[in-house]
Specification:
Layout lengths: L6 H14 L10 H16 L3 E6 L3 E7 L8 E6 L6
Antiparallel strand pairs: 1-2, 2-3
Helix pairs in contact: 1-2
């Protein structure tokens, strides 16, 4: 049995993650939603693992799209540090 995710597994994880984006303020009509969706579409199609750092207005995100079944797709967010004035 392969330890690589099937296309079906990647689709399911991508949909789950995309459905959660509005909960963190990234609406379907936002550019960032489409930007993240683009990475997910590539990942679903070719199965290659992707790790991408994405800069949001108030956060830095790390999009993790793994190729192995023992890891799950995630978008980890960290608040940006405020610049000293």
């Amino acid at each position: 049995m392969s330890n690589l995710k099937s296309k079906e597994q990647r689709v399911k994880e991508a949909i789950t993650l995309l459905k959660k984006l509005p909960d963190i303020g990234i609406q379907r009509e936002d550019y960032m939603f489409r930007y993240i969706q683009g990475f997910m579409s590539k990942w679903v199609s070719d199965g290659q693992a992707i790790t991408e750092t994405i800069e949001f207005r108030s956060h830095i995100g790390t999009l993790i799209l793994p190729d192995k079944v023992n890891k799950v797709a995630a978008l980890d967010l960290k608040a940006k540090r405020e610049e000293d004035d």
